[in-house]
Amino acid sequence: MNLMPAFRTHKNRLCISLILCLAMLVTPFVSAAEMRPTEKIRVKFSEAVEKSIVRTATALDKTVRKLAEALDKTDNLTVKIHSSFYDSRIRRYFVSFSGDATFQGRLPWRLDNDSYFITTDSEVSIDLHVSDIKQSRTGTKFAYECSAVVSLDRLAYEMLKKIPHLAASGAMSPVFDLFTEFLSKLNIGILSKAISETFRSFSAVAFTRLVNDMIKASGQNKGLANIFREAMQDGSILTFLALQIVRCASVSLVSVAGASLGATVGSIIAPGVGSVIGGYMGSQILTVAAKIVVYQLTAKMPLKRNIRRMIVAHQILVKNPGDDVARSSYQDAQNKIEKNIGSELGNEKFSLFELFLKETDKMSASERQAMVPVLKIMQTLLLNKVVNDGDWYYARKYHVLRQHVESWGLQSQIVFTVEPPANR
User: Fold this and answer.
1) Which of 77, 325, 56, 32 shows the shortest CA–CA distance to 191?
2) What is the sign of the dihedral through the CA atoms of 69, 101, 27 and 188?
3) Of 98, 232, 281, 358, which has the highest C-beta tally within 10 A?
4) For residue 139, which phi and psi values (nearest 5 degrees)?
5) CA gyration radius, the chain
6) Which long-range contacts (CB under 8 A, 24 or more apart) does 173-177 make?
7) 3-class SS at 70?
8) In what order do the strands lie in the sheet with 293-296?
9) Are 421 and 392 in contact (CB under 8 A)?
10) Which phi-psi region, left, alpha or beta, contains residue 81 (left: φ > 0; alpha: ψ -120 to 50)?
11) How far is it, in rounded angstroms, from Cα 323 to Cα 318?
12) Residue 319: how many CB atoms within 10 A of its CB?
């Protein structure tokens, strides 16, 4: 199975061509079933399973840091990790990083803006800001900031459903053990070299040439040759990356076995266990790609998207207050929410105000802490209308806000000292 279909929209294609390889730093082998973190009930695992998750998180952190270090040594990518940790309360792994990149290949689409925000919400949630895009004869240079969250328990559930021998056992510990083994065996050298080479040479012509080279190298291995021929119909940057991984491995392809391109890549970069998870990754990454959304920063971003950005950034800042990437993301999302809700309130509209309260009500107590600054701003905006204009309709919304704040136990942080005027 090919790793990614060609993107259908112009805006998605031009941006993804620049940043999908960066996303590989944190999402090379993950599933993508839809999941709203704030609406999931935490399932109680046995002590043995919890220990297995911790081992997986530790292996994931080592892999991410090793890959970042390897990429930072290349001549066209820099990577600096600001925070990386596992939160056992919610079984999620967090990482934030930033850097610069030079794309020296050839893009089939014209860039029409100098910054974009790329996001996806699944088992691996990514918020990626690409900025300072500059094109020259030597390539396209840009800066990036990224925050990512891996929901390890949800990831394991999906693996349990999709990998036959794991599904047959029905046990969670073997799932995490398999993933841990895969991460431990991952060949970082091959992966980092392939990512760097993809940034250096990706183009339509280079893609065709690489596929033909791989078909020739496969010799009498007709199964593998057919997989490469299928890849020819794709032409995406992730498939090019997969082929680069095969090429950079410098192994004889005559005896390489794989039911799909994903399984082939997995078996090469993590011998033994790799073909199992690699095949699973190959089938699931299509969904990851389909869920990626690209925004120009000049456009209004949906309220729910900015709420999620605030939650993720706040969770990182609790662990590491000095994380500049998380702080920038948090402040940007907060500003956008306040601006959009403030604009509506000023025009006697309350849909975003009500949606914000609804979404905040779904959150856990720790997640609501991220919303306190916005709640305070909303309180101030409504209070100004109440005190200055004596507007009873705004007073009703002020009272609704107060009821929610008290039900959430936040009244010590958001103090209501003014009573709204009575309904006239």
Assistant:
1) 77
2) negative
3) 281
4) 140, -175
5) 24
6) 173/48, 173/49, 173/52, 176/49, 176/52, 176/53, 176/55, 176/56, 176/152, 177/52, 177/55
7) helix
8) 80-87, 92-103, 139-151, 124-136, 116-120, 293-296
9) yes
10) beta
11) 10
12) 13
Distance (Å, whole) CA 35 – CA 215: 39
What is the reported pLDDT for 354? 95
* Helix, strand, coil distribution of the chain in percent, nearest 5: 55, 15, 30
Instruction: Give 42: exposed, middle or buried? Use CB within 10 Å, 0-12, 13-18, 19+.
Output: exposed
Segment 5-38, tens digit of pLDDT? 333 344 444 444 444 444 444 444 333 333 344 4
Residue 120 carries which side chain, given as an amino acid letter?
T
User: To which residue do tokens 């596992």 refer?
Assistant: 86
The pair phi, psi for residue 195, each rounded to 5°, is -65, -45
Q: Which two tokens stand for residue 30?
A: 């993950």
Q: Which residues contact 378 (CB under 8 A, 6 or more apart)?
A: 341, 345, 353, 356, 401
Cβ–Cβ under 8 Å, residues 289 and 7: yes
pTM over 0.70: yes
Instruction: Collect all residues with Cβ–Cβ distance below 8 Å to 213 and sequence separation of at least 6.
Output: 247
CB 260 within 8 A of CB 283: yes
The label of the residue with tokens 């500003």 reads: 335
pLDDT of residue 362: 95
With both helix axes pointing from N to C terminus, report the angle between 303-319 and 324-346 in degrees, rounded to the nearest 10. 140
